[in-house]
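ugh ok fine here u go
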Amino acid sequence: MSLREIRHTKRLLLRMPAEVDLDFVTALFARRELVAHRPDPTPDTPEESARRLSRDMDHWHNHGFGRWAVEVDGRLIGFGGVTVSKEFDGLNLSYHLHPDSWGYGFATELVKEALAFSFNDLRAERVIGLVRSVNAASRHVLEKCGFTFEREVMLHGAPTNLLVLDASHQMV
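structure:
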């Protein structure tokens, strides 16, 4: 595997998502607390989860990078990384971690690695994060990593905060 396909941080192993991750994805997106900030907070069906995993794997195939599967001590805890945004200028940073892993700094560690990858490896000029106003924890993670609020946008029918980090202002 290349450096894009597998990366390490102090505590995280980041790797390409694979079909073997489907049961985890299905269980993850069936959790109400994970989908609580969506405009429609209905958990995903198994079919929706399969499409989600397929999109992540297709992005890797089409672009050579994407959201990683995130492991801690050999245990899958979620997914995150950057993807090509179809709606906004810049790479889109996103992550979804299992609620049992919240509060340990894994999201911050993942975001910092995704930013280092974006700016150093991909030579991105801009990375964006889209966060619902009610998701204060995710916004805090992005702001701690240097993101600033740019504007409110409508995403999937709901107001969403667009936070940005330009290459010239990166903190990582």
